[in-house]
Amino acid sequence: MVQKAKILLVDDRPENLLALEAILSALDQTLVRASSGEEALKALLTDDFAVILLDVQMPGMDGFETAAHIKRRERTRDIPIIFLTAINHGPHHTFRGYAAGAVDYISKPFDPWVLRAKVSVFVDLYMKNCQLREQAALLRLQLEGGRPSADETKESAGLLAELSARLAAVEEQAEALSKQLDEAADAAAVATAAHLERKLTGLRRALDALEPGSGNGVG
C-alpha cells in the first residue's frame, strides 16, 4: 500500500484552513494543519512533507520568518513552499517571497483548480523521490548480500521500468503545467518552472543511474 504524502497548511484563520482542505481533499493525501509559524516548525521536526502552503500575514511569526527558519534547517530546506497572501504590495513584496525561498507566490482569492494542480505536481515529485530512495536501498541490500538472483534482478528491472513510466507521466504533467504558467508571464511562472525542471532532471538522472549497465549506478 502506497503511503500518502503529507501537505502542511499554515494559516492563522480556521476558515482559510477549511477552504484549503476543501480544495485539496480531492488529491487524497494527508493534510496537516498549523495555525501559526511556531506550530508549523514544530510539525516539521517530526514529519516529512511534500509541500507547504504558507500564509504570509500571520500574527507573531509571519510567513517570511517561518520560511526563513524552514530553509535554515537541513531536514526541511528542500521542501517546496507556496506562499498565499490576501494582499498585494507589488513586485517588491513578491520578490521578498521568492527571496525567502518560496517556489510560488499566490494572491487570494486564487483559482482552486490552479492551486490544486500546482500542489499535485509537488506531491507527485515527492512520491517519485520516495520511490527512488526505496529502490536504491533495495538494490544496495541485494548487492551487499551478494549477486542478486534472477528473480530479484527481474523484479528490480520491473520496478525500475514502472518508476520510469511514472516519472515520464509526471514530466509530461509538469511540461503541460509549465506551458500554462508561461502564459501568465509572471515571476511565479519562472520560479515554479525552474524548480520543477531542476527536480525532474535530478530524478531522471538518479533513475537512469540505477539502470543495469549504466555504469553510474550502485555497483
TrEMBL record:
SMART domains linked to this entry: REC
SUPFAM superfamilies: CheY-like
Coiled coil (UniProt feature): 160-187
A Pfam family that the UniProt record links to this protein: Response_reg
Name under which the protein is recorded: Response regulator
Domain Response regulatory: start-end pairs: 6-123
Record keywords, A-Z: Coiled coil, Phosphoprotein
Membrane spanning residue stretches: none
InterPro entries named in the record: Bact_response_regulator, CheY-like_superfamily, Sig_transdc_resp-reg_receiver
PANTHER family in alphabetical order: RESPONSE REGULATORY DOMAIN-CONTAINING PROTEIN, STRESS RESPONSE REGULATOR PROTEIN 1
Domain of life of the source: Bacteria
